[in-house]
Amino acid sequence: MLRHRVGAFIQGMASNRGTHSCSYKEESNMLRWALIFFLVALVAAVFGFTGIAAAAAGIAKVLFFFFVVLFLLTLLGHVARRP
């Protein structure tokens, strides 16, 4: 049963290539901001600005985990909707 659902999910993903929903854009924007804050934290750490580096790293960490949770919820919702 699980193998059938996974196969149907992968097949559905292949057939939906090129169509993007609004939630996909929101999730990619969230990932982009997480990566930006991560890069700011790395640059600040190199220059020794520990306060800025810690703040940017904290924001990047929160945004990254928030993105992962949204991704997993979207994935589970997509799998659950399949007949």
List the helices and strands and how they pair.
Blueprint: H1 2-15, H2 22-47, H3 50-81
Helix pairs in contact: 2-3
List keywords for this structure.
83 residues, mainly alpha, 3 helices, 0% strand
Determine the N-to-C terminus distance.
11 Å
Helix content: over 70%
Low-confidence stretches: none
- The coarse silhouette is elongated
Distinct helical segment count: 3
Structural class: mainly alpha
Beta-strand residue percentage? under 5%
What would you say this structure looks like, in words?
The chain is mainly alpha-helical and 83 residues long. It has one domain (22-81). Helix content is 87%, strand content 0%. It has 3 helices and no strands. The chain has helices spanning 2-15, 22-47, 50-81. Helix 2 runs antiparallel to helix 3. The protein is elongated, with a radius of gyration of 18 Å. The mean pLDDT is 75.
What's the short story on this structure?
With 83 residues, the chain is mostly helical.
